[in-house]
Amino acid sequence: MGPMGETRIIDAAERRARLGVRHRLAGSARAGSAAEVADALVALHGTDPASVFLAVAARLAEGVEPVGAVERALYEDGSLVRMHGMRHTVFVFPSSLAAAVQASTTRPAAVRERTTLLKHLAAGSDFDGEWLAETERLVLGELAVRGEATGAELGGAVPRLRSTYVYGAGTRQEGVQSVASRVLRVLGMEGRIVRGRPQGSWTSSRFRWALAEEHPVRDPAEARAELLGHWLGACGPATEADLTWWTGWKVTDVRKALAAVGAVSVAVDGGTGFVLPDDLEPVASPEPWAALLPALDPTAMGWQGRDWYLDPDHRAALFDRSGNIGPTVWWNGRIVGGWAQRPDGSLVRRLLADVGAEAERAIGAEAERLAEWLGDVRVTPRFRTPLERELSAH
Question: Is a pLDDT exceeding 90 seen at residue 388?
Fold first, then answer.
């Protein structure tokens, strides 16, 4: 509430100002390290490994080399960790949040994942819980000896991982599936193993696995409050619908976490949003800024309600059928187009709105910066969207 009990209004313009500063996209707000970027965003989408590096690259200050910065944080100093999080999705989190994520979000999902795996094994094979437990024991023992190994290497050392089972027997989805990917997924979600450095380049998803450091036991409600507090600091104001979508929690859990952090209701376009109690002061717009953000960027995917930064008429071109966003072009807090990389390495973009000469120059400069950094690297998003497909094909 504002003075005299009046509801604080945070309009779309101020939300875009907050986004430019807090998400490290305005030139003056850029970060000095990958960990600083992840802390500002709370989580980097990790389903597509290249997106992590591209999201960091868009937000780093000049002179900081993105690949080295991310790899040091992930594989050397451990300030970032890759793990399952919200909506059963792989993210890269600041390691300081890993225990809160595990307790609030990943552990409940892991319970469901294990239950589902046991159900599928019982229906499509002769394997039972005892067989699964022994297989996991062998995998963990192998990693204790090796230090790290790919799924293929573990399959060579633990023959049980090469077993298969029938999925969806008697249905249209019937097929033979490998045990390995499901077992490693469960162990990863339970926080017993962790994805390490991949084979090949930074765009590769052929990760090595290693034993994970044990997360301290946390009270789930306290962990939910901690995670939500960080996210509101980065993305507030957010509606209840935004929060339930982003976290994947029950509405009752979201409401309890909002109460635990003392969240304050504010008026946003289209309804009621929430901010932290110390976040009611106006935020001024930063200097004009442009950005080329990758597919699945956490800013583009940060809210369920996106009309304040995305024209609804552009959704069909920029999203796939599952709701994954492709590469986007931004100007002053709005998505104004999309971009793609062609097989010859050239970057192409299309603006979906008339943004003016100043914006076009700034967007062109960002495109040149990205192209120079990518060099000979080729990046194809894992989830292809209509505009990205069209641009990359010509």
Answer: yes
Q: Is the pLDDT of residue 4 over 70?
A: no
pTM as predicted = 0.93
Is residue 145 classed exposed, middle or buried when 0-12, 13-18 and 19+ CB atoms within 10 A define those classes? exposed
Residue with tokens 């450091």: 213
Number of domains in the chain: 1
**346 is in which domain, residue-wise?**
310-393
Q: What is the largest CA-CA distance in the chain?
A: 70
The pLDDT of residue 5 is 61
pLDDT tens per residue across span 135-193: 999 999 999 999 999 999 999 999 999 999 998 877 888 889 899 999 999 999 999 99
Whether 370 maps to a domain, the answer reads: yes
